[in-house]
Amino acid sequence: xxxxxxxxxxxxxxxxxxxxxxxxxxxxxxxxxxxxxxxxxxxxxxxxxxxxxxxxxxxxxxxxxxxxxxxxxxxxxxxxxxxxxxxxxxxxxxxxxxxxxxxxxxxxxxxxxxxxxxxxxxxxxxxxxxxxxxxxxxxxxxxxxxxxxxxxxxxxxxx
Length: 159
Prior knowledge:
This protein is an alpha/beta fold. It is built from five helices and six strands.
């Protein structure tokens, strides 16, 4: 089995507020939303063996909030620039390269790529994917690259 939780970063400062898009930090509301979402997820989501995020400040901050709630060192969050710049297809390539011995993962990224990723993996998904949305799916797959070929079971969705 493979368990994948896809998270869109929480609410961030407006573009141009404090530097570049990459440097945008979470707002107080964003921090509170991330903490609330991960508290809900703790009841349904397996502790991730890999927590991967965009290196953009807002995504990394969101990922570190998730890491802390799962009692994982914030320094254990892996970053990949493709999660910041890439499309849903690029995110699938990032996932496909994860160690198949790992069963549970959280990926924190940006729209539209994360919403498109969820729709590609779980076509029944018809909702919006606002800031700090999370969708956790379980797949009967042995390899991460098999996710697109394996119908998932929805484990958790927020909001």
